[in-house]
Amino acid sequence: MSLSFARSLRTLSVSGQHARRFPYVLAWSSAPSSARFQSSFPTTGAPLADIDPSRLEVSPTPSPKPLPASSTLKFGHTFTDHMLTIPWDVKSGWGAPQIKPYGPFALDPSSTVLHYAQTIFEGMKAYKDADGKIRIFRPDMNMKRMNTSASRIALPTFNGAALLELIKDLVRLDQQWIPTEPGHSLYIRPSLIGTQKAIGVGPPNEALLFVIMSPVGPYYPDGFKPVALYGTTEFVRAAPGGTGAFKLGVNYAPGILPQQHAAKQGYAQNLWLHGPEHYITEVGTMNVFVVFRKDDGGYELVTPPLDGMILPGVTRDSVLTLAREHASSKNTITGLPANLTVSERPVTMKEVKEASDSGKIVELFGAGTAAIISPVDRIGYLGDDIHIPTGEGGMGPISRAVWTELVGRQTGIIPSDWSVVV
Q1: Are residues 396 and 306 in the same domain?
Q2: Both 203 and 236 in a single domain?
Q3: Keywords assigned by UniProt (predicted)?
Q4: What is the pTM of this model?
């Protein structure tokens, strides 16, 4: 599957309430994963050069750093010996890729990334399986989403398959940095920034794509610990027609102050709400799932729809796919109930509170690359706490089964074409 960006209007009817209109819609299409994205920058004459792995130049570091003890790893603080850089300019397109020692690079003070936040990024992970093979989890999804994000803020697009081949080269070169302990991985951060040397709002005439990597330990080193959320009504993460559905740097800095606000009140993360109905959108920097118990004794797994405000997370898609395959008996997941309904629909805080009061809420959890699954035990909302059940070991019945399947596929324990061998 691939992401396609459609500029259109959609009317979404919510339980008989007034309709909401979303001018931007992200839709999953069946286009082949090898499909190339067209550049956002029309030219005359010869087409601009795309990313070409055959032009790769490699300059190994003369001074490799000592490998850190896995027990000392802190997420995103330690980086491998090398990085990948690929320049772009509006006249010739993508230049020669370079793998070189990790380190600072020079930016002109007038670079557009510094003034207008022309920056996007992705997050993906590489693992070593029991046989020593290196695996990256669903990287084609990250390449497609990165192109969609680039197009949204007028950065140049690229051949995602070509960039993935270069990322594999970088991973191979620094493969000794991949921790082998359970729950550990190598976090891969591709980024693209506008580097035009002039102040002015518009598509940049220069850009830089770069990839850095960081060995990381488990998100919950001492076991799963459910987190408390603050249902924020003071701040908004995204709005219809905005940029919430894209992985842009500009979406994250505004969340720091609300995070501090939530922490001062004793909560770990914000639960982002939207509109007077307080529709649930995301949790922290993750997608959110709610599990309800139905009247017939079955379960409903619910996540908000991709309405233009929700980021189309890779883990989100993975959770939905696994649950739907189980529900249709296409691929049974051990531990998931047989009577399972999977829904992408709006859900409000009123519905969550009423389900909690009536004993019909089973669990609520976040899903994202860093944590994979993050269970929730309470939500602060309008001055009260809504309590969410958590199962044995801190995870509910649905999230634990899905997490076990996902980790198995990521690490190669469970065979899957989602796990790409490097």
Answers
A1: yes
A2: no
A3: Amino-acid biosynthesis, Aminotransferase, Branched-chain amino acid biosynthesis, Pyridoxal phosphate, Transferase
A4: 0.88
